[in-house]
């Protein structure tokens, strides 16, 4: 049986395998992230936006370690928080549930303050 080549990754998407990624929703252990869920749900604009946000977050968290646990922590958490804000923004763009939307707004407000704190710390500490 002939195999087709994988689709090219979208900008900002990771295109390499990591242990355990095949078990994650929307992940393809051989080719990174794609805009579908594990159960084959429709490829929608919101799915693509969530997958991009998660791919960007993972790429940011994959920054090489410095050996300084404080800097490594701040860099990893910065990418994690930026990913949370991006996902919350997708919820506000596409979501309809008032409780989910309110939580997204709360996440954005809290995470943006922490992002600013982490960036300032990194600037002061050579990160």
UniProtKB/TrEMBL annotation:
It comes from the Bacteria. Pfam families: DUF305. Coiled coil: none annotated. Residues 1-44 are annotated as: Disordered. Residues 21-122 form the DUF305 domain. This is DUF305 domain-containing protein. It comes from Jiella pacifica.
